[in-house]
Amino acid sequence: MKFFCILETLDIKGQTITIDAMGCQKEIAKYIINKDANYILAVKDNHKTFHEQIKSAFKTSPIVDVCNTLEKGHGRIEERTCQVITDLRFVDESCNWDKLHSIICITIQGAKSIKITAPLSEVITFHISKKTFMTNFLAKGGSLLTAMSITGNKDFKTARRYYKVVDSLKSDEMAKVFG
Q1: Whole-structure pTM value
Q2: Residue 123 CB: number of other CB atoms within 10 A?
Q3: Among 55, 157, 166, 171, which residue's Cβ finds the most Cβ atoms within 10 Å?
């Protein structure tokens, strides 16, 4: 699995790893916990029973924390509400996930389309895990072609947005070329 390849290149101890619904796998959660890290995984209909239990739990369990934000991104303005529950007695599937302590529910309301007038190259996107992997992989001496192969990027134009050339890598390359 490609995701394990990415995780193996990173020092994740003490970090919180966030993964979208595609990476919401019990094996990935266990791997992260075994590396002394924490996880936030997106649960959607990819785990239908678990998803339904979570929705029911938010109707019956006490909310222990709430945060409201107004977000602008991806061409729209949204009001987001983040709620947290820690009483997992009504989520039968929770026992199958290593060290699951709380569940977060994010609801989005009032999406209003906006027009972004900045050039596309200046619009910031949220692909942190891919960018982090590519930066670390390149900083440790991996080639851009290999990083592109692992992450599924087909060309340099699309790969360019995910990596940041590390300062030490710049000086090493300059020393190679100019001595």
Answers
A1: 0.54
A2: 12
A3: 166
